[in-house]
Specification:
Layout: H1 6-18, E1 23-24, E2 36-38, E3 46-49, E4 65-69, E5 79-82, H2 84-92, H3 102-105, E6 109-122, H4 128-141, H5 143-149, E7 153-168, H6 170-175, H7 178-181, E8 189-193, E9 196-200, E10 206-213
Helix pairs in contact: 4-5
Length: 215
């Protein structure tokens, strides 16, 4: 097993320092993108997009997005987990090990390293201020529609581990056929070298978001 210690906190601290208000996701899904509405800050169930609910002065063009690299180097840091927490870490970054039983879960230990992080945001710079103005207009003109949005979490930017690697402890390799079991994010590329799996070109599954609760 890998030890869980300072290295783990270093990567998490580096991400939070680079992206101070980030909310880490527990399970990545492609529906979560800028403009997405989640059940709440702590319940990540996707419930729809906010664009159809809002009124002028926001326009469809203001909801167009762009993808850019995050200019922060995380390569020298890693994140380590074991047991059920290792499964949670894999899910956060879009990896799945379906059909793994409790006895095998206990044998799992992983170390994750980020190589390239990208962010998807509104090209227009649309953010909290503009959304709050539009929501105030909606509240004044259609209170029931506004109330349906209240307490939900609005996503304004999504962060992706475009390229990353996961190193598995030897116990897992002895317990399962990793090549057959491990599933990677849609349209990404996956390559295994020994007990390390490289995932590249992940453009669909975010590991964290920026946003705010509609009140």
């Amino acid at each position: 097993m890998y030890s869980v210690g300072l290295v783990m906190r270093d990567l998490e601290a580096a991400i939070v320092q680079a992206i101070p208000d980030i909310n880490f996701l527990t399970i990545a899904t492609p529906d979560i993108r800028p403009g997405a509405l989640l059940e709440s800050r702590h319940l990540e169930r996707y419930i729809g997009q906010i664009e159809p609910c809002l009124m002028p002065p926001l326009t469809p063009a203001m909801f167009e997005t762009e993808r850019q690299p995050v200019a922060v180097k995380f390569q020298d840091l890693s994140l380590e987990r074991s047991g059920a927490a290792a499964i949670g870490l894999l899910h956060r970054f879009g990896l799945q090990l379906p059909g793994i039983g409790l006895s095998t879960t206990d044998a799992i230990s992983v170390r994750l390293c980020l190589e390239t992080v990208t962010v998807q945001r509104f090209t227009s710079g649309l953010g909290k201020l503009e959304f709050e103005q539009a929501l105030r207009s909606l509240k004044a003109q259609n209170l029931p529609a506004f109330q349906r949005l209240q307490n939900h979490f609005l996503v304004v930017a999504t962060y992706y581990a475009r390229d990353f690697c996961v190193t598995f402890g030897a116990e897992l390799l002895n317990a399962i056929d990793l090549d057959r079991k491990l599933q990677s994010p849609a349209r990404s590329r996956m390559q295994r070298q020994g007990n390390t799996v490289w995932v590249t070109h992940n453009e669909t599954l975010p590991f964290g978001v920026l946003g705010y609760e509609i009140t």
